[in-house]
Write a structure and sequence with these properties.
Blueprint (H helix, E strand, L loop, with lengths): L23 H15 L12 H9 L5 H15 E3 L7 H4 L4 H18 L4 H4 L4 E3 L1 H14 L8 E3 L11 E3 L1
Parallel strand pairs: 1-2
Antiparallel strand pairs: 3-4
Helix pairs in contact: 3-7
């Protein structure tokens, strides 16, 4: 038997362990160690947040690191609408600053409200319409503003030997 190549796959997590309930001091110690190994990139501000988001981040400033993460996740989930029909407008928001993207996402939500009045109940309290990549970037920007290291991971979930753009996801 002649073997031309060996093919294998190995999955290794390079992410830090999940954030457990820790004190501010414990978190800062972890963050400094992480930055020494990996650089300061995950701590730098992503964008100047609009006043509404900035006020929210300031309102949770005295919470523990875990409580900040949970509050920001809940805020983003509660204030956003997943726009499954975004294909027609996707190019308009590509390559713009987060500030411009947030304005675009607000405008898009206004358009959806006009186009689909039947969604009025579902859209109540929502501020932004977008997709996972938009929400991941907003979340990361808010987390960094709150002093929590964060980043955005964009991946494809393959099926067999094929990968489709519909299999893309960001967190």
């Amino acid at each position: 038997l002649k073997v031309n190549s060996v093919v294998y796959s190995e999955s290794v997590s390079e992410l830090p362990p999940a954030l457990a309930e820790v004190s501010d001091r414990e978190y800062e110690s972890f963050a400094k160690q992480f930055a020494r190994r990996n650089g300061e990139g995950e701590r730098e501000k992503i964008a100047a947040l609009p006043s509404e988001l900035k006020l929210f981040v300031q309102s949770i400033a005295n919470r523990s690191p875990m409580e900040k993460v949970q509050a920001i996740e809940a805020y983003v989930r509660d204030s956003t609408y997943y726009d499954f029909d975004n294909g027609q407008v996707m190019d308009q928001s590509r390559g713009v600053t987060i500030e411009d993207r947030l304005r675009f996402m607000q405008s898009r939500l206004d358009d959806i409200r006009q186009e689909k009045p039947n969604l009025a109940k579902e859209l109540a309290g929502k501020r932004y319409a977008g997709v996972c990549a938009d929400f991941a970037e907003i979340t990361a920007a808010m987390l960094r503003d709150a002093g929590i290291m964060s980043g955005v991971a964009s991946v494809f979930r393959p099926y067999g030997l094929s990968v489709m753009t519909g299999d893309a996801h960001a967190v």
